[in-house]
Amino acid sequence: MTIGKIIDGKAFAETLRGKVADGVGAFIAKTGRKPGLAVVLVGEDPASSVYVRNKGKMTVAAGMESMEFKLPASIGEEELLDLVEELNADERVDGILVQLPLPPHINEASVIGTIDPAKDVDGFHVVNSGLLATGQEAMVPCTPLGCIMLLKDELGDLSGLEAVVVGRSNIVGKPMSQLLLAENCTVTIAHSRTRDIASVVHRADIVVAAVGRAEMVKGEWIKPGATVIDVGINRVTDTEDGKSRIVGDVATAEALAHVRAITPVPGGVGPMTIAVLLRNTLVAAHARAG
Ligand code: GUN
């Protein structure tokens, strides 16, 4: 039995961060200032706090200015919108990221819609999603863009390939499908109401799993020779020893017998997200500097 290749997202992300750091050096030489990334965290969700801390460290390591705003979960929507507007107006800020999810009393769409689209390094603003959907230059969401980079590195030209995206979130599933379409893939989006999801996934040369359900995509669903990108980050607790570990949305051990290549969890897509965020921030800084 042949075993598929494990795609080393961690190494790819390190290389990308190195290229961004070189680009930051050139930006500073040209403009005399550092690119700046403002990250806003509302509340104390442990997973979000870890991400935000890592983002701050990596931003500084890439030679950029990191500005962090930690606000209590009780903050009112108006106050948060005021902060976003201040950041929009701040010349030192090239990128604004408001960590999601937000507390239920805050309207996420209003907050995202208040970010200046030119500083929207997450690519979540409707202006950016509309530009992406119509094939125009846009700020592209970090995780799906990272997935496309890994796919192109592995497969080269994606044109004509059957791609199935499992999950339809605004953060991953929808923009992922737009990016695959832009690469001339035949794209299907599968989701919780899809009938016979196993046979839908079995058509795919490329599977992108982004549903947030531990090991939902089974090995036997995968067409032999398919390439699988696993976006899931799910904490599960072992019933036997009570220890917790992180698994993806794909049953990786089973899938390895079927795939050409697959991203592991952890160490696959995860590290790409922050690397692409830094890249997007540098792109935004260049666009603002003219
Ligand atoms: N929460 C989970 N992923 C993301 C992301 O890529 N950006 C933001 N802002 N929040 C998130």
Strand order of the largest sheet: 1-11-8-7-5-6
Total domains, how many?
A: 2
Provide the structure class: alpha/beta
Spans of at least 5 consecutive residues whose pLDDT stays below 50 are none
| Overall 3D shape | globular
The count of helical stretches stands at 10
- How large is the share of residues in beta strands? 15-25%
Query: Mind telling me the C-alpha Rg?
Result: 19 Å
Distance, first to last CA: 55 Å
Mean of residue pLDDT values: 97
**Small molecules in complex:** guanine
**Succession of helices and strands:** EHEHEHEHHHEHEHEEEEHEH
CATH class of the largest domain: Alpha Beta
The biggest beta sheet, please? 6 strands, parallel
Helix content: 40-55%
Based on DSSP secondary structure assignment, what is the total number of beta strands? 11
- The CATH topology of the largest domain, please? Rossmann fold
Question: Could you explain the architecture of this structure?
Answer:
With 290 residues, this protein is of the alpha/beta class. The chain folds into two domains: 86 residues, Leucine Dehydrogenase, chain A, domain 1 (Rossmann fold, 3-Layer(aba) Sandwich); 129 residues, NAD(P)-binding Rossmann-like Domain (Rossmann fold, 3-Layer(aba) Sandwich). The chain contains ten helices and eleven strands. The strands form three sheets. Strands 1-11-8-7-5-6 form a six-stranded parallel sheet. Strands 3-2-4 form a three-stranded parallel sheet, sandwiched between helices. Helix 6 crosses helix 7. The chain binds guanine. The site of guanine has 9 residues, from strand 4 and helix 6.
